[in-house]
Design goal:
The protein has about 600 residues and is mostly beta strands. It has five domains: about 5-115, Immunoglobulin-like, CATH 2.60.40; about 120-235, Lipocalin; about 245-355, Lipocalin, CATH 2.40.128; about 365-485, Lipocalin (Beta Barrel); about 495-595, Beta Barrel (Lipocalin). The protein contains no helices and 44 strands. The chain has a nine-stranded antiparallel beta sheet with strand order 31-30-29-28-36-35-34-33-32, with no helix packed on it.
Length: about 600
């Protein structure tokens, strides 16, 4: 079951029951707050309900349906605004929570929650694409591949491309391996590449830890002494019109953004732009590539060629500009890529379709209209960079907006309202942030590249929420990074979440991934931690979150991972997805919360 498909954006639910016929008394209103869309079997969460316009006590009685198999409450009656602990039943299914005014039993509120089973190896079954970026023994590295999981803990086949700053170029390496998924959705995977022993760290044996959000998506880190990184796992469609292994589905206009390193000059490097691809005809018919090479920016038109995909969705993109990529297609509109220009350049990122395969989309400033959340990660002239925020866009200007920036440990936050933006017909545009020491530090000139409004950039197999937006590429002289802009809807921060945070400090990279439960403003759970190659499993994880009453959709709080604590800002994308930002002076990082 794909849990994200059944998430309900339920912040407050209520049923209004009128007082007696002909009465002038106001209606009695019962409201249940912070109801999660999903819960794991036997999981407990804190619920509360309020009653207004009740001349009596306003006490609330808690019940659920179907009776006898829907879980339990402690206590079963609460004072007006009081809390009860609800424990889900042991079996998967759907339950309805009912809050009733104890003095006026005709006044009720209800909410539906999907109860899902605990994790099992069967949650991974089929073909998947994984993508990671981070640090290995030689410096920056990125890897992308595809694997086939049999549902019983075995990886029967696969293929991987791996590139790092030590000039390692392992391409199309066959792989096999094993995996295991625990009750809370956390898992581990070990793969062995058949040809990787020649050059890859650790003889081509790679270990990953992950937290699944559904049977089609998860957050992942590399979890061994040689490599430290973060990324994603996504189900790879191999049938139908959007198949990632069918050349006919990889056609049309794409936006892309990649980040990494200019190995020759040892500076940060990003590429972005738009391109028209056709795997069937083998061509890049047109496109524009933008470059930020350590603060030196340029752009150029391009053509080129496309090959593939093979049985694992692998193909190549070569451009006349001289930038070349290997891709693994999650589906026709989502290509995870690594740049294959080692030892000169090395970057990684994603090509996203601008519309359904074969279509040529047209955009304007009205295509970016509404409320959005965004993030960017990268570096500046000072060191590591992370920025996240939210805004309301219309007619080429932000009418409202707020952002948090951590520029090498210098943390600032402030309004980004009145920032102008543009968007041309081909999907390329600009967003100009304040770029002042009191707001977004070194970040000002952003390039944006619009994507298919029906595409979920965070979880491509989920089409029910979080769709539409754009890619970000920093075009500043002193800042270099990439990120996403995603449509924003607000809702509850409660329930089960996969959590991933990628951190950088003065000497190392730190990554953790795991499972957490948010209830009543508090997180509890466990994560797997890779601290620059020193790994630890099942590390205690806790945290807090407090809603920003002025900027709805923004939260502040903290994470504690073992003995280490981090100050965190959260920006809600929707009821199931959040961008997270570390705001400490000693660490800089971005990450994600995604509902399970």
């Amino acid at each position: 079951m794909n849990r994200k498909h059944i998430l309900l954006a339920l912040m407050v639910l209520g049923v209004v029951v009128l007082a007696g016929c002909g009465s002038s008394n106001p209606a009695i209103i019962v409201q249940i707050a912070n109801v999660p869309g999903t819960l794991t079997a036997n999981q407990s969460v804190t619920l509360s309900a309020t009653v207004t316009n009740d001349p009596s006590t306003g006490n609330v009685n808690w019940t659920c349906m179907p009776s006898g198999s829907c879980g339990s409450f402690n206590p079963t009656q609460t004072a007006n605004g009081g809390t009860t602990s609800y424990t889900a039943p042991a079996a998967a299914g759907t339950v309805t929570i009912v809050a009733t005014d104890a003095d006026h039993t005709g006044s009720t509120a209800s909410a539906t929650i999907a109860i899902v089973a605990v994790g099992a190896n069967s949650q991974l079954s089929g073909q998947y694409v994984y993508f990671v970026q981070g640090t290995d023994v030689d410096g920056f590295y990125t890897a992308v591949g595809s694997f086939v999981a049999d549902g019983n803990g075995n990886i029967t086949s696969g293929e991987q491309d791996f590139y790092d700053a030590g000039d390692v170029q392992d391409q199309a390496d066959p792989l096999t391996g094993t995996y295991s998924i625990s009750a809370n959705g956390q898992g581990s995977m070990t793969v062995t590449t058949a040809n990787g022993g020649l050059t890859l760290p650790n003889g081509g044996v790679e270990t990953f830890s992950f937290a699944l959000t559904s049977t089609t998506h998860g957050l992942v880190i590399e979890f061994d002494a040689e490599d430290t990184s973060s990324g994603t796992i996504d189900f790879q469609s191999t049938t139908g019109t959007t198949s990632g292994t069918n050349a006919a589905s990889i056609t049309g206009d794409y936006s892309f953004a990649t980040s990494g390193e200019d190995l020759s000059n040892e500076v940060a490097l990003t590429f972005g732009g738009v391109a028209n691809l056709s795997a069937s005809s083998g061509s890049v018919t047109s496109g524009t590539i933008y470059v930020n090479d350590g603060g030196t920016t340029q752009n150029s038109g391009t053509t080129g060629s496309v090959t593939g995909p093979d049985a694992f969705g692998r193909g190549t993109i070569s451009t006349s500009f001289g930038v070349n990529f290997v891709f693994y297609a999650v589906q026709g509109e989502v290509l995870r890529v690594v740049e294959s220009d080692v030892p000169t350049f090395i970057t990684g990122g994603t090509f996203y379709g601008q519309g359904a395969p074969g279509t040529n989309s047209t955009f304007s400033v009205s295509s970016l209209s509404g409320t959005y959340a965004f993030f960017e990660s990268g570096s500046t002239v000072n060191g590591p960079l992370a920025i996240a925020g939210q805004f309301t866009a219309a007619s080429g200007n932000l009418s409202a907006g707020f952002a948090d920036t951590n520029d090498d440990g210098t943390y600032e936050k402030g309004s980004i309202a009145a920032s102008p933006y543009t968007l041309a017909g081909n999907g390329s545009g600009t967003l100009t942030l304040p770029g002042t020491p009191s707001t977004t530090e070194d970040v000002s000139a952003l390039l944006i590249f619009a994507t298919d409004p029906t595409l979920n950039l965070l979880d491509p197999n989920n089409t029910t929420s979080g769709t539409g937006g754009a890619l970000i590429m920093d075009n500043d002289a002193g800042a270099y990074g990439t990120g996403l802009i995603v449509q924003q809807t607000t809702g509850a921060l409660q329930g089960n979440y996969a959590v991933n945070l990628q951190l950088f400090n003065s000497s190392a990279e730190i990554d953790f991934v795991g499972q957490s439960t948010q209830s009543g403003g508090s997180f509890t759970g466990t994560v797997d931690l890779n601290d620059n190659g020193t790994t630890a499993t099942a590390v205690n994880f806790s945290g807090s979150s407090t809603a920003d009453s002025t900027n709805v959709g923004r939260y502040t709080g903290s994470f504690t991972v073992g003995a280490n604590s981090y100050n965190i800002t959260y920006y809600q994308v929707n009821s199931g997805e959040f961008f997270i930002l570390d705001t400490d002076s000693s660490d800089v990082g971005n990450g994600f919360l995604q509902s399970q």
